[in-house]
Amino acid sequence: MTRPDLAAMIVPLGRALMRAEEPILREHGLAMWAYSVLLALREQDTRTQAALAERIGADKTRLIPVLDDLQDRGLIERHPDPADRRVRLLAITPAGRRLAAKTQAAIQRDEEERLAKLDPDDREAFLRALRTLAADK
């Protein structure tokens, strides 16, 4: 018996997860790209705009309005790179860290409902497999 392609299984799940995240993100005043920026900066505090765009898979020119909004809201800071003043370094602020953590906790509470459908061993194996596959980009 053949199995479905990985994309045929993962893409619908990914879309369902993104649909489930939308109201949570709205409740926390974030768009998906803004949330992605905050998580990436929380992971590595200081990044260039180009490195951030590459990390989250965004077009760096389309990311600028997202960064402007986050900066205006005091969630990130942008400073010139002392080594190259044409380059902007990004850093998450304490308020940005708090909002990212609060939003992620709400999203993960929702995800727990889906994961509860799996028995504990399958759940751990599933999460371990996802981590492995996600790390192999």
Give a quick set of tags describing it:
single chain, 137 residues, alpha+beta, Arc Repressor Mutant, subunit A, 3-stranded antiparallel sheet, 3 strands, globular
Kindly describe this structure:
The chain is of the alpha+beta class and 137 residues long. The protein has one domain: Arc Repressor Mutant, subunit A. The chain is 68% helix and 13% strand. The protein has a three-stranded antiparallel β-sheet. β2 (76-81) and β3 (84-92) form a beta hairpin. α1 crosses α5. The two termini are 28 Å apart.
Layout of SSEs?
Elements: H1 6-27, H2 32-43, E1 46-48, H3 49-56, H4 60-72, E2 76-81, E3 84-92, H5 94-115, H6 120-135
Helix pairs in contact: 1-5, 2-5
GO biological process, one term: response to stress
Organism: Amycolatopsis acidiphila
Domain HTH marR-type: 3-135
